[in-house]
Specification:
The chain is built from 6 helices and no strands. It has 147 residues and is mainly α.
């Protein structure tokens, strides 16, 4: 199950990165904001896409479970901070490296993607997956009993 989820998460993550990068580069091209604010806005655009794609496709939850939106917000706020910080630190560390903007973006994305998968798997959708995929025979017997 985790291999399937991780595979789909990688596809969703790739699409999310495209959304993130397109918004980031677009805002920088328009020259209407700072690099850090552009990174934050682009990350949030990717976040909105990622929530719905992961909820419906990766983890297969058609309805909103109690607390999942709040847990998702906490997770993504934490990874937003990590994403911007890693991007800023990498830009400083790679100042003389060609394509430093792209390298910093990829590093920040890699760190936040790893944190996001772990957070969604074990924090955001954990209680739903646990009850839906229970291997406890007592749980199986309860679900097959007629009222």
């Amino acid at each position: 199950m985790i291999k399937r989820e991780f595979g789909i998460f990688l596809i969703v993550g790739s699409l999310t990165v495209l959304v993130d990068f397109a918004v980031y580069r677009g805002l920088l091209w328009l020259d209407i904001t700072s690099i850090d604010l552009a990174k934050g806005v682009s990350f949030l655009a990717g976040t909105i896409f990622a929530y719905f794609a992961n909820r419906f496709w990766t983890f297969g939850h058609q309805s909103i479970a109690a607390g999942s939106v709040g847990r998702f917000a906490v997770l993504y706020l934490s990874t937003l901070i990590a994403n911007i910080a890693v991007n800023a630190l990498a830009l400083k560390a790679l100042i003389d490296v060609p394509s430093s903007l792209q390298w910093a973006f990829l590093l920040a994305t890699g760190v936040s993607a790893t944190l996001n998968f772990l957070g969604m798997k074990f924090f955001v959708f954990h209680s739903q997956a646990k009850s839906a995929n229970s291997t406890n025979p007592a749980d199986s017997a309860k679900s097959s009993e007629l009222p």
